[in-house]
Specification:
InterPro entries: THO_THOC1 (IPR021861). The chain has 440 residues and is mainly alpha-helical. It is built from 21 helices and no strands. The chain starts with a helix and ends with a helix.
């Protein structure tokens, strides 16, 4: 029986019995067996993984990603990533399309986290360092005439209209972070955040209100004046707002692009104090062990990400060249000349000549051979497969460096076909597909 048929048989049995797919351990054993055969055919494991995610519901997907975390050391090896990155990208993309980010937040979050850990740095998005925000969804703020009255006003916690309008108007600053570093915008942003911190500290955090919001979890994301007082009493709502404020305060202190200038020196002290106050309020709202260390780790990673983007996304594989100051000079290396070696008469001279000759032969063992033309075009041919779901702008045939290398190789081996390939990208794709068929 084929391993895929065996997997589908286990899935049908689990659906029939009404249990999770990985509950009895049979599917995990099947994946372990496929993972042990990775030296023979690594794609078997990823075929099973893609099939399993296609038939998984939200709870099953959580179990699958938890299994992948346990075997991360084997799955994330470079050889496995090279064979399975298209399978993983396709499976996780289909899973995120099928599920709701709001109702299945755990499964969607695990899928995105696994993609971020699995794909190497050069496969992630480094083409949009500016990061233009989404501003198509305006924030609707009630007018003064929409104030609740009568019994409705008596049943709701009172909130002044000035605080309500200022609290929700700060979302406009979140939508346009480039303007946040301006002096007038930053002062208004800082004033509203400090006012919100005072209001959060004075709001009562009752279990009754918290249980009410658990039953209707869509309420915290409405901007109506009528429920603002209830929203301020809900810890999840306060945590979301504080996280937003913390992220954009960090953005103002350390912008990710050179086009956005950081805050002025006289405003940085206030921004740092505001960041500490927000972090203190956030840790008081989310009383989870290890949350502070988690935030510190996130900030360290984000600072590295910002520095990488500000440097125009350099390759991680290249070592950074040592920069020398004006006073520092690197000593010149010794040049080997024939006359620089003292030759002694007798057998010692012949032994020295023999050692020199054998030492020069060592470089032949370490030399890198030129990749065959069929192997060179294999990646371009794989991306032309519709099953790999690679969008046209991201294909390697549109990369200038790849095209330059391809034209050099073709000019050396088949010069008569070079002119057609230079002027026609479609001809280059057909040529790559025809050449890759020779790869075993």
């Amino acid at each position: 029986m084929d391993v895929r048929d065996a997997l589908l048989q286990h899935v049908e049995g689990a659906r029939r019995d009404g249990r999770r797919l990985l509950a009895d351990g049979k599917v995990s054993q099947l994946l372990d067996a496929a993972l042990e055969e990775k030296e023979n055919d690594p794609s078997v494991f990823f075929d099973l993984l893609e099939t399993l995610l296609d038939v998984s519901q939200a709870e099953d997907a959580v179990d699958v990603f938890q299994y992948l975390e346990r075997v991360a050391d084997d799955v994330q090896k470079p050889a496995m990533v090279a064979h399975g990155k298209f399978h993983v990208l396709r499976a996780c993309t289909q899973l995120l399309r099928r599920m709701s980010r709001r109702e299945h937040a755990h499964a969607c979050g695990l899928a995105q986290l696994f993609l971020a850990q699995f794909l190497p740095m050069h496969d992630r998005s480094g083409t949009n360092p500016a990061g233009p925000p989404e501003v198509e969804f305006p924030v609707h703020i009630d007018k003064m005439s929409d104030k609740p009255s009568g019994k409705e006003a008596a049943a709701l916690p009172p909130v002044s209209y000035s605080f309500y309008s200022a609290f929700w108007s700060v979302q406009e600053s979140f939508q346009k972070p480039q303007k946040l570093v301006e002096a007038s915008t930053w002062k208004n942003f800082e004033r509203i955040i400090r006012k919100a911190l005072v209001n959060f500290a004075s709001s009562a955090n009752t279990e009754e209100r918290e249980s009410t919001f658990r039953e209707t979890d869509a309420w915290p994301y409405l901007t109506t004046w009528r429920i603002t007082g209830l929203q301020l009493k809900q810890p999840t709502f306060r945590a979301c707002f504080l996280l937003q404020a913390l992220v954009f305060t960090e953005y103002a202190l350390h912008p990710p692009t050179p086009q956005v200038q950081p805050l002025l020196d006289e405003m940085k002290n206030g921004a740092n104090n505001l960041k500490e106050e927000i972090l203190k309020a956030l840790l008081a709202t989310i009383s989870v062990p290890g949350f502070a260390e988690f935030l510190d780790n996130i900030f360290v990673q984000e600072m590295g990400w910002v520095e990488w983007k500000r440097a125009k996304c350099p390759s991680r594989s290249r070592p950074v060249a040592k920069s020398l100051g004006e006073s520092e000079t690197e000593p010149p290396g010794k040049r080997m000349r024939v006359g620089s070696t003292e030759l002694l008469p007798g057998p010692e001279a012949f032994e020295g000549l023999e050692d020199i000759s054998m030492g020069k032969l060592d470089g032949l063992e370490d030399r890198a051979l030129v990749v065959p033309l069929a192997e060179f075009f294999k990646v371009a041919a794989e991306q032309e497969d519709p099953d790999n779901a690679i969008e046209e702008p991201y294909k390697v045939v549109h990369d200038n460096l790849f095209r330059w290398r391809a034209f050099r190789r073709v000019s050396a081996e088949e010069f008569d076909k070079l002119q057609d390939l230079v002027t026609d990208t479609a001809a280059l794709k057909r040529y790559a597909c025809s050449k890759s068929k020779a790869v075993p």
